Amino acid sequence: MSDIEIARKANKKPIQEIGAKLGIPTEHLLPFGHDKAKVSAEFIKSLESRPDGNLILVTAINPTPAGEGKTTTTVGLGDGLNAIGKKAVICIREASLGPNFGMKGGAAGGGYAQVVPMEEMNLHFTGDFHAITSAHNLLSAMIDNHIYWGNSLEIDTRRVAWRRVLDMNDRALRQIAGPLGGVANGFTREMGFDITVASEVMAILCLAADLKDLEKRLGDMIVAYRRDRSPVYCRDIKAEGAMTVLLKDAMQPNLVQTLENNAAFVHGGPFANIAHGCNSVVATKTALKLADYVVTEAGFGADLGAEKFYDIKCRKAGLSPKAAVVVATVRAMKMNGGVAKADLGAENVNAVKNGCANLGRHIENMQKFGVPIVVGINHFVTDTDAEVQAIKEYCASLGVEAILNKHWAHGGEGIVDTARKVVELVEGGSSSYAPLYPNELGLFEKIEKIAKEIYRADNVIVDGKIRDQLKAWEAAGYGDLPICMAKTQYSFTTDPNSRGAPTGFDIPVREVRLSAGAGFIVAICGEIMTMPGLPRVPSAEAIRLNETGEVEGLF
């Protein structure tokens, strides 16, 4: 059966029953239908004095067309921990419409390790992304309106930094000119759109502690510059209050369930290559108060998602992860070893061994953060015993255990060995989490440290203008901010076709952006786009309603 067919057969329980398992009273659940609800801010505040559970990160090798199954593993591990008697909750991101209608087709896990309702989660869900889009574009409208009505802040219209957003992949909107049509419509200038998940508003929602913190961070956003290069903030436009009103409900975490009726928080969704790629801090912290184990994921490979999880989210939120799972597949190892996608079904142990270099680099990188790890091999039916054994032996040579997981086919019972290993790592108390770099390191030096120690680049290539900009931000008091690298997810380099563990390359930084409200500097590397385009054959072509009104084409 397909993922969506499995999801349709789910024996879902009323969301109030799922909440009751966590001790959430019915009056503190804002239901969206029968199977999803938001958790009230009042209830979340009441949890402050409770001790925290154990935070577990699920990350992965660089994604390949062969598929890795990071979200599937996250969901499966949560179910597996519950299956061995632990009280566990899952925390994942919401799905963006852009990738779902582009290449991804869905982001709720797969097989018998899914979060449901699958269709709603992959589509409009509880409207959080629409609220973020509206709040972001309200600010855009108020900036242009301020300029139209006399521009008392003396904004340099050539230096409006605030772009508009849309939760869709649309390359035609990357760079546009507007407004057109004459004096009545405003002053014509160059502008553009980013995808909603790249919005600083999304990043802020996912890092803010509460509504008060949210409003302050929104006010701190830099939206434009004057002719003397002094910044204009969102609070100067007086937009942060109205934006917070639009985001009031979106700030509350969404509670849903897995196929095995275990609780899952699905909240927030910043991209991992052009943003920090983690679910919201408020959802993670709420889950930690309600469960003994919280399993969360970081987007794309460990070079992007896990690095940002450790260096941005955990640093900013004061989180201390206790263990991490690095997901790999035999198929992906073969692709990294030079096998074409069409030939992945045939046994090729040598290609697996050659491709393990990519996994090995991620293992070495993750060990730099002081969090103990286990490798989870996500099983495919075409995998042979010899291929699986090759990965296990390779990992053992690095002092790390690799465990074969069959949660896609068997749910939580198919991943109990990894669940027990995670418990062993946590109870062993060997975690000594620390970020890769200290706050006081210079901004360029932070970029260089990530590029050289995580990507293994020889050099970081930046022009004098970018260096001057970083120095100016340091002088303005932003020097202690972490770096959010915007880079292709498919490779350690900026070339998406360079698989494995390449060496002898440079990382070019073509632009830097200050996200003063979110609290990080974005370094845009190579050709990465903050507004993706659709592929030649988008998933949208296969998504439709069937004769009974059910969604088809999501996977």
List the helices and strands and how they pair.
Layout: H1 3-8, H2 15-21, E1 29-31, E2 37-39, H3 41-45, E3 54-60, H4 70-83, E4 88-92, H5 97-102, E5 109-110, E6 113-116, H6 118-122, H7 128-148, E7 155-160, E8 164-166, E9 176-178, E10 189-191, E11 193-195, H8 200-207, H9 211-220, E12 222-226, E13 231-233, H10 234-237, H11 240-247, E14 254-258, E15 263-266, H12 281-290, E16 293-297, H13 302-317, E17 323-328, H14 330-336, H15 349-367, E18 373-378, H16 385-397, E19 402-405, H17 407-410, H18 416-428, H19 443-455, E20 459-461, H20 464-478, E21 483-486, E22 506-515, E23 520-525, E24 544-545, E25 551-552
Parallel strand pairs: 3-16, 3-17, 4-15, 4-16, 8-11, 17-18, 18-19, 20-22, 21-23
Antiparallel strand pairs: 1-2, 2-14, 5-6, 6-14, 7-12, 9-10, 12-13, 14-15, 22-23, 24-25
Helix pairs in contact: 4-18, 7-8, 7-11, 9-11, 14-15, 15-16
CATH superfamily of the largest domain: P-loop containing nucleotide triphosphate hydrolases
Shape: globular
The CATH top-level class label of the largest domain: Alpha Beta
Largest sheet: 12 strands, mixed
Number of strands: 25
CATH architecture of the largest domain: 3-Layer(aba) Sandwich
- Under CATH, the topology of the largest domain can be stated as Rossmann fold
- Unreliable spans are none
Structural class: alpha/beta
Rounded Rg: 23 Å
> How much of the polypeptide forms β-strand, as a percent range?
15-25%
